[in-house]
């Protein structure tokens, strides 16, 4: 039996790879940690899986019982796919405070940077099951505004507090049972800023979902942290780049560690059929949604690895035309 993957070591490597990013969030509220290739760290504590730049910070706490799941999903772009690793906990261990009104927590003694530990933390009360979405400030004017509106939903009709928050640009802090992401740079207005940032989307929050349907969170669990390793086709800002075979191979290693066995098996079955020269019409298609996703993704990946050739083109034409997910 192969030894269990070293979760701490793998996470630490990605923590120090500027090509990898992380998020903590739910459907409708998320904090993302990115850093530039040459962006200096102002704090680096690998033993405690903690880093910070001038724009934001990330601390990861790998408690007992964490369940990693590596996955790939289809993109609407016919040449692409997405990938990631979601780290989950059983629902009772992952549960947040679930506050639904603006609530003062007090000094943020767990802040990543020492200088932020006397600033006051407020949960903005999104009611998410898996995260507490907070802001942090030491500004007297904003503190007075927040305290005046505490105890009310930030989305209540006529409540001006969200506009006050956006205007004041406090730190945003997303907290789960597997860590926290802190965003120090200003809130993006019309354009999402590069680097650490947050999104709060009230319409999506109404669905009360912790994750998208195609993210493989095990039954009875909740997502607490996501990792997005460097992508073979996209840079950290989601822009196209020259295909990078090394990034594809690196993620295949994560799939071997933490991916679904039947997903990996279908990808291997397709690759073997193509090596044998099998016609697509003679291939028995998978019966499951996950299997069909694996089939279409391996064909997209093989096109980049091997380049287009007549048999692969026939497979792609056949299964992209008839495939459903």
Helicity level, as a percent range? Answer: 25-40%
Roughly what fraction of the amino acids lie in strands? 15-25%
Distance between the termini: 33 Å
Structural class, from helix and strand content? alpha+beta
Question: What are the secondary-structure elements, in order, as H or E?
Answer: HEEEEEEEHEEEHHEEEHEHHHH
Domains, number: 2
Radius of gyration: 22 Å
Contiguous uncertain segments of 5+ residues? none
- Major sheet summary line: 8 strands, antiparallel
**Mean of pLDDT:** 95
Strand order of the largest sheet: 3-4-5-12-11-10-9-8
Strand element count: 14
Number of helices: 9
The backbone outline, from C-alpha atoms, is: elongated
Quick structural summary:
The chain has helices at 7-15, 91-94, 140-149, 161-168, 202-205, 245-258, 261-275, 289-306, 310-322; strands at 21-26, 29-33, 43-45, 50-52, 56-60, 67-74, 81-90, 103-107, 120-123, 132-137, 171-176, 179-183, 197-200, 221-228. It has 325 residues and is an alpha+beta fold.
């Amino acid at each position: 039996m192969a030894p269990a993957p070293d979760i701490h070591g793998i996470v630490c490597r990605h923590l120090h790879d500027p090509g990898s990013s992380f998020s903590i969030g739910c459907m409708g509220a998320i904090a993302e940690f990115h850093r530039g290739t040459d962006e200096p760290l102002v704090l680096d504590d690998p033993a405690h899986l903690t880093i910070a730049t001038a724009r934001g910070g990330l601390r990861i706490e790998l408690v007992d019982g964490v369940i990693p799941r590596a996955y790939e999903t289809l993109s609407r772009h016919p040449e692409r796919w997405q990938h990631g690793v979601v780290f989950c906990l059983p629902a009772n261990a992952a549960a947040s405070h679930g506050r639904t009104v603006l609530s003062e927590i007090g000094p943020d003694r767990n802040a990543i940077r020492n200088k932020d530990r006397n600033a006051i933390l407020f949960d903005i009360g999104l009611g998410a099951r898996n995260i507490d979405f907070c802001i942090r400030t030491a500004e007297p004017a904003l503190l007075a505004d927040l305290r005046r509106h505490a105890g009310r939903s930030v989305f209540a009709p006529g409540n001006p507090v969200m506009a006050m928050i956006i205007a004041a640009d406090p730190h945003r802090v997303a907290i789960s049972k597997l860590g926290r992401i802190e965003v120090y740079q200003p809130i993006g207005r019309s354009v999402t800023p590069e680097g650490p940032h947050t999104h709060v989307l009230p319409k999506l929050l109404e669905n009360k979902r912790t994750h998208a349907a195609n993210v493989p969170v095990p039954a009875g669990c909740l997502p607490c942290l996501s990792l997005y390793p460097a992508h073979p086709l996209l840079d950290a800002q989601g822009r196209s780049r020259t295909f990078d075979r090394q990034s594809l191979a690196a993620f295949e290693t994560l799939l071997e560690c933490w991916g679904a066995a039947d997903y990996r098996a279908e990808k291997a079955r397709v690759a073997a059929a193509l090596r044998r020269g099998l016609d697509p019409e003679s291939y028995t298609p998978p019966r499951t949604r996950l299997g069909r996703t694996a089939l279409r993704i391996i064909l997209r990946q093989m096109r980049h690895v091997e380049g287009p050739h007549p048999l692969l083109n026939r497979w792609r034409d056949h299964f992209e035309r008839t495939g459903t997910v």
